[in-house]
UniProtKB/TrEMBL annotation:
Region described as Disordered: 81-100
Protein's GO biological process: regulation of DNA-templated transcription
Source organism per UniProt: Candidatus Gottesmanbacteria bacterium GW2011_GWC2_39_8
This protein's name: Addiction module antitoxin, RelB/DinJ family
Length: 100
């Protein structure tokens, strides 16, 4: 098979963990990366799973602030079309609605 080399900078700990998982699944890391690249070409999408990830303190704080803003009515309403959004934006007396 004709092959090309791709050099990628990866944290050594990540590489070791990925090699271990690949091995446990019965694959080489190279074969999994090749399969992933083929999948990107086929589907034209990139998928990541964050199932085991925990949200950062910053994200948690931001979500709580957003929740307070929604409850206080400091958010713009949702619009079904651009004309309604433009009308709302062009009305300077209109305050933020409680719609979300």
């Amino acid at each position: 098979m004709n092959t090309a080399v791709i050099n990628v900078k990866v944290d050594p700990r990540i590489k070791k963990k990925a090699q271990k998982v690949a091995s446990e699944l019965g694959f080489s890391l190279s074969s999994l990366i090749n399969a992933y690249l083929r999948d990107i070409i086929r589907t034209k999408t990139v998928n990541f799973s964050a199932a085991d990830e925990n949200p950062s303190d910053y994200l948690i704080k931001s979500l709580k602030e957003a929740e307070k803003d929604i409850k206080a009515g400091r958010v713009s309403p949702r619009f079904d079309n651009a004309n309604d959004a433009t009308k709302w934006l062009n009305n300077p007396k209109k305050k933020y609605a409680n719609q979300v």
